[in-house]
Amino acid sequence: MSGSKALMDALELEGAKTVFGIPGGANLPMYDELFKSNIRHILVRHEQSAAHMADGFGRVSRKPGICFATSGPGATNLITGIATAHADSSPMIAVTGQVPISMIGKDAFQESDIIGISNPVVKYAFQPKTPSEVPEVVKKAFYISSTGRPGPVLIDVPKDVQQNEEEMNFPDVVKIRGYHPWTDPDITQIQRAIEILLKAERPIILAGGGVIISGAFAELQTIAELLMIPVVTTFKGKGSFPENHILSLGPIGMHGHAEANKMMVEADCVLAIGTRFSDRSVGKFEDFEKNLSIIHMDVDPAEIGKNQTASVAVVGDVQASLRIMVKMMIQKAIKKTEKTKWMKRVEETKEYWQKNLKIHQGDLGAAKVLRKLREVLPHKAITTTEVGQHQMWTSLFYNVIQPGTFFSSTGLGTMGWGFPAAIGAKVAKPDVPVVDIAGEGSFNMTENSLAVSVLENIPVIVFVMNNQSLGMVAQWQRTFYDRRMIGIDLKGCPDYVKIAEAYGAQGIRAESLDEIGKAVKIALKSDVATVIDIPIDPEEDVLPFVAPGTALKDMVLPS
Can 506 be counted among the known catalytic residues? Predict the structure, then answer.
């Protein structure tokens, strides 16, 4: 059997149904076998979008998404998408073609050292040297990508390895020297965590992206309700806890909710679940942990103590850790029913800021626009975002009701991610509406994926909050650079309604809240992609705001 035939058979054995990619000279043998397989191929318009689609598919399905690219520039074009998946712990298998083994290192046409280039942003990179290695490499790649802390794995297959034939063995299980994912938590540490939580006077739960990755939604809610502890999230953890729940305070951080940041500052104990304590979430590291006991739950032992000092560390799958915690509390009949002084304080603060936070007074202010979207969308709808002001407004004003339905590029902050990721998400869950909340600056970077959405019958909705500028950069130039505005004016080009129509999609311009509601309802019924273009004020800033290098207590509020 040839290496490329073995590759397709191995992918099918792993349950692969879809591949996002572009063929080229160095991966044509694998494409020839892909043609003969039962795997659906979705032709993208740029390899970076292939990686983003695989990323979106992986986040929604919690199984590795797969992308293909040829050698040289095809492979290097995947890197931003691979790095995005790595930063956000998303499972992915990237398969690249490579020049023949005899030509490696000789500056052959379209040769690149993709193993060396990708190593900092993958969990592992493979380059099989013989066809018979391919089945085991694929098995190992899926195992590494989907276990422990998920992430991208690269398989770089030289062209002669794809073409040559050898006897094949397809292993049922694989062992990888030095790779032992840590999933079983230490019960003693969980007991210590419970004791600290029960002694705390002002406890709070900080839920991160690890809750979503592990699917620990029910366990998180049970813990919060048993102990009557308020819940804040990181931005990546947004959607881990229903944001209409009485205990929800929303995201903390640079563009977190005012009430969430205020209560985080006042807490004396935090149960941090699946979070890496990024600077964008906690602000100034040394200020965050002052007078605060930290219980840190994470599947990755490397995260413990990296940014914040933990009083107790529970290493293991966070869903398993929380399940054990729930069982231990139920066995001890631990359940708080009386409202504590802390909870009264939390409720008062939450009510105050929900009533008194000043928002843009125009008809199409960000808060009003996003609340209208939330009003019309079903709770089960999956939402992705691009990167920029609209992303942070979404953090503030778009409530995620059904856990596990919100995804964004957080760690790397990759502009152009949201739309192709939405396409990948729709492939993973074709019966669920999928909306990309976008800014036009970010949408510009991957709008050619409209062709993919239309031609492959993957109808998603792009909700463009259009201020004709690179809004977040403009806000920083207004705030920190005395309004020295440069490189941010997009001058209203292009016309997104015409762009959508040119690709065979549906384009709608909505200039009032009523028109937005009608446009979203039309889009939900459409069998083609819909771009909804909404003009907003270019001078509107995202507030509240915690400036870089400051603490949560230094939050800047709208005046």
Answer: no
Dist CA 433 CA 458 (whole Å): 10
Q: For domain 3-163, give its CATH number from 1.10.10.10, 3.40.1390.30, 3.40.50.970, 3.40.190.10.
A: 3.40.50.970
Cis peptide before 150 (omega within 30 of 0): no
Please confirm, yes or no, whether 472 is among the known catalytic residues: yes
Q: Which residue has the tokens 């999933």?
A: 183
Is 142 among the catalytic positions? no
For the chain (559 residues), the mean pLDDT of every run of 10, in chain order, is 98 98 98 98 98 98 98 98 98 98 96 98 98 98 97 98 98 93 91 95 97 97 96 97 97 95 96 95 88 94 93 96 95 83 95 90 92 98 98 97 97 98 98 98 98 98 98 96 97 97 98 98 98 96 92 91
Choice among 159, 236, 372, 426 that is catalytic: 159
The residue from 109, 201, 485, 498 that is catalytic is: 109
Catalytic residue, from 1, 17, 110, 501: name it: 110
Third-level CATH fold of 366-547: Rossmann fold (3.40.50)
Q: Which of 47, 111, 219, 243 is catalytic?
A: 47
Q: Where are the alpha helices (DSSP H) in 180-230?
A: 187-199, 209-214, 217-227
Q: Please count the other Cβ atoms lying within 10 Å of the Cβ belonging to residue 57.
A: 29
Which of 463, 472, 540, 555 is an active site residue? Answer: 472
What gap in Å lies between CA 499 and CA 507, rounded to an integer?
8
Q: Is 217 a catalytic residue?
A: no
Active site residue 126: no
Of 254, 251, 246, residue with least CA distance to 229: 246
